[in-house]
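User: I'm new to structure prediction. If I give you an amino acid sequence, what do you actually give back? Let's try with this one:
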Amino acid sequence: MRDAIRAGILSRMTERCLRALQARRTTLRLQWEERLRASPFNSPLAHPDTLVHLIDRTLDEVFNDLIHPKARRRQAPLPPDFCRCGFNPLITYFSTGAFAFQTVLGQCADEVPVSRDDADEVKSTLTRISRREIMTFCTLCQRNPTCLAGAPKRGTNPHPEE
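Assistant: Good question. You get back a string of structure tokens that encode the predicted 3D arrangement of the chain. For your 162 residues, that looks like this:
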């Protein structure tokens, strides 16, 4: 993280916010899991017991991207009807994660300044990761061929910016 600070990528405020968020990783994980378990599920793949093991890996990826930011253009979230069959378990997984991050960022704001830019960077990072994962899952959909209408064709890179 210090290399990023020296390079002028992260401001001091962002560093403090990031450290406060990292210090609450356990709380973040627990809140994400609680929200996931409270959400309805519609398939065995969407069952919380199937998804909770992904939380640590996703948190690792989010924090890694926040610590080592790369120049990327911001991406809009996928439209609500992107998964036309409605069985992509990652949609609920990432939406519950986004709520958990918002809650924990609010808790961080009690101790350190959290700017709108800090919150936007967390949201943008999670959106980029969720978009990639949801699109990848939809390319593998066997339930409904209409899901593939919105997904990239097989054999093409669904995330050309990476």
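You can read the tokens as a compact description of the fold. Here is one thing that stands out. The chain has one domain: 2-150.
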